[in-house]
């Protein structure tokens, strides 16, 4: 028997639930911590209630709840005891044997730039939100939310109005004619790649990727069991001449032709035609990731690969760079069988993007707000790009700046005498996040020796401040 003097008075507080719930939690905690052991008898409820300053009925109710959980057991004429169940109760927290939770395969840490506090942040793929028309956006979301909700889930392919607006936008802005029934609304490009990988890849499949390239997409392919075949890039994008010669055993060729990530080159017109010819000859699907193709500065537009005559290109677009990443809306433009397969797969595994968000985005495009926003941001990004180039020149930072013709980032290439990884490490200690190109490479030791500089999200003052820190990092310890 456990005397009442061994049961400390519980700390009962207003606003932390009912007294009954607090008593249940307290007694349960004493049992699971093995401070009350199997066979111990609780003091009489009348004595315990008086000692704890609670109504006896409240305490009895708490004891009955714990009896229903089989942590306590009431024996008529003998009292209330801690049951044998207590010996099988974990002593603290949620504990499950390793053999139960062991995964059949190890899931790697995602290879993505982690959010970290820094004085200046030059990580790529971060758009500016300073000029986004939030007042207009809030109104459009409110208007969409006010429409009568449907008793059904969202259209599995995507809201018809949004698909129609995406189709119209691709036609007039990207020279890509695709009917709305061949558009599939995804939750971004990474999500779209995941779905397509589930449809096409199996253990042993081969995927050609740019080297260096987008590491998170590479991990998606690897988790699907695919073998990655790296293909080099240069200032003209993917080196098509270096594509593998193995027969018809490549499932995907994943490319970023508008602004190669992270090296920054644009796939030349000649290579675009050559890539499509190679893919059609080898029976491969080209996944065209057009993540920031809306923004170009000193060069004329090149149509997407999907706009050229072909039977092999799947076009992947996103609003993450044009609007903001947390929107989580992208799209796939592809042949009808692929769209149908995507719909069927999603219907089994998940639901689509919420209708309210899709309707607001459709209205944003239909009203012309999207086009006006792109024009504003293109002007702003051009100014920031020029600010970066000028600051690097004025402060005498060593290296050759490349990849400036389009997109939201550039690369600074160093001579062999200056180690980009070491510079990146010293810069981070000083408060500047600027990743080396090797971070995005399948073989880091063979990666170009340089840094990736994302300038879109930083103000001109932050850009100049970051360049100053970068200069110090280049000068050594």
Task: Describe the structure in your own words.
By secondary structure, the chain is of the alpha/beta class. The chain folds into three domains: 4-88, Arc Repressor Mutant, subunit A; 120-125 and 375-474, Alpha-Beta Complex (Aspartate Aminotransferase, domain 1), CATH 3.90.1150; 134-371, 3-Layer(aba) Sandwich (Aspartate Aminotransferase, domain 2). Helix content is 38%, strand content 14%. The protein contains 14 helices and 15 strands. The chain has an eight-stranded mixed sheet, sandwiched between helices. A three-stranded antiparallel sheet has the order 12-13-15. A two-stranded antiparallel ribbon has the order 1-2. A hairpin with a 2-residue loop joins β6 (227-234) and β7. The longest helix is centred in the C-terminal third of the chain and has 26 residues, at 369-394. The radius of gyration is 30 Å and the shape is elongated. Mean pLDDT is 90; it is low at 1-5.
- Total beta strand runs: 15
Low-confidence blocks of residues: 1-5
Structural class of the secondary elements?
alpha/beta
Helix content: 25-40%
The name of the CATH topology of the largest domain is Aspartate Aminotransferase, domain 2
Summarize the model shown.
By secondary structure, the protein is α/β, with parallel strands linked by helices.
Name the descriptors:
477 residues; alpha/beta; Aspartate Aminotransferase, domain 1; Aspartate Aminotransferase, domain 2; 15 strands; 38% helix
Write the layout of secondary structure elements.
Layout: H1 19-32, H2 45-52, H3 56-68, E1 72-75, E2 79-82, H4 98-101, E3 120-121, H5 134-146, H6 160-174, E4 183-186, H7 189-200, E5 206-211, H8 215-223, E6 227-234, E7 237-238, E8 250-255, H9 269-282, E9 285-289, E10 313-318, E11 330-333, H10 336-349, H11 355-366, H12 369-394, E12 400-402, E13 409-413, H13 420-430, E14 432-433, E15 450-454, H14 460-474
Parallel strand pairs: 3-14, 5-6, 5-8, 8-9, 9-10
Antiparallel strand pairs: 1-2, 4-11, 6-7, 10-11, 12-13, 13-15
Helix pairs in contact: 1-3, 2-3, 5-11, 6-11, 7-8, 12-14, 13-14
């Amino acid at each position: 028997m456990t005397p009442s003097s061994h049961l400390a008075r519980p700390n009962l507080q207003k606003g932390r639930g009912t007294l009954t719930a607090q008593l249940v939690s307290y007694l349960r905690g004493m049992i699971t911590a093995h401070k009350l052991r199997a066979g111990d008898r609780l003091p009489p409820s009348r004595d315990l209630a008086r000692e704890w300053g609670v109504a006896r009925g409240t305490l009895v109710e708490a004891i009955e709840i714990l009896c229903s959980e089989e942590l306590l057991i009431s024996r008529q004429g003998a009292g209330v005891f801690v049951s044998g169940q207590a010996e099988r109760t974990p002593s603290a927290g949620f504990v499950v044997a390793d053999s139960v939770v062991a995964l059949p395969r190890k899931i790697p840490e995602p290879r993505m730039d982690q959010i970290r506090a820094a004085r200046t942040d030059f990580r790529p793929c971060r758009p500016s939100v300073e000029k986004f028309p939030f007042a207009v956006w809030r109104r459009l979301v409110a208007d969409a939310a006010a429409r009568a909700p449907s008793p059904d889930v969202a259209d599995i392919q995507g809201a018809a109005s949004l698909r129609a607006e995406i189709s119209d936008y691709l036609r007039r802005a990207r020279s890509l004619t695709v009917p709305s029934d061949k558009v599939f609304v995804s939750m971004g490009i990474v999500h779209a790649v995941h779905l397509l990988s589930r449809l096409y890849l199996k253990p042993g499949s081969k995927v050609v990727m740019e080297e260096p390239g987008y590491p998170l997409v590479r991990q998606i392919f690897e988790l699907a069991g695919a073998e990655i075949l790296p293909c080099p890039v240069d200032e003209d994008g993917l080196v098509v001449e270096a594509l593998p010669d193995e027969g018809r055993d490549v499932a995907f060729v994943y490319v970023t032709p508008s602004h190669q990530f992270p090296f920054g080159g644009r796939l030349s017109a000649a290579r675009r035609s050559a890539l499509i010819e190679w893919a059609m000859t080898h029976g491969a699907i080209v996944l065209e990731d057009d993540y920031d193709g809306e923004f170009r500065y000193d060069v004329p537009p090149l149509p997407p690969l999907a706009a050229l005559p072909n039977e092999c290109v799947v076009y992947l677009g996103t609003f993450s760079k044009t609007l903001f990443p947390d929107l989580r809306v992208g799209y796939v433009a592809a042949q009808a069988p692929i769209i149908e397969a995507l719909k069927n797969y999603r219907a089994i595994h998940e639901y689509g993007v919420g209708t309210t968000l899709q309707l607001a985005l459709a209205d944003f495009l239909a009203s012309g707000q999207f086009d006006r926003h792109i024009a504003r941001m293109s002007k702003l990004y051009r100014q920031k790009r020029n600010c970066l180039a000028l600051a690097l020149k004025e402060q005498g930072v060593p290296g050759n700046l490349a990849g400036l013709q389009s997109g939201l980032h550039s690369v600074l290439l160093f001579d062999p005498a200056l180690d980009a990884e070491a510079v990146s490490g010293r810069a981070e200690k000083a408060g500047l996040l600027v990743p080396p190109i090797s971070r995005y490479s399948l073989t880091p030791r063979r990666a170009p020796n340089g840094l990736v500089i994302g300038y879109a999200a930083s103000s001109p003052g932050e850009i100049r401040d970051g360049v100053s820190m970068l200069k110090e990092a280049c000068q050594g310890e």
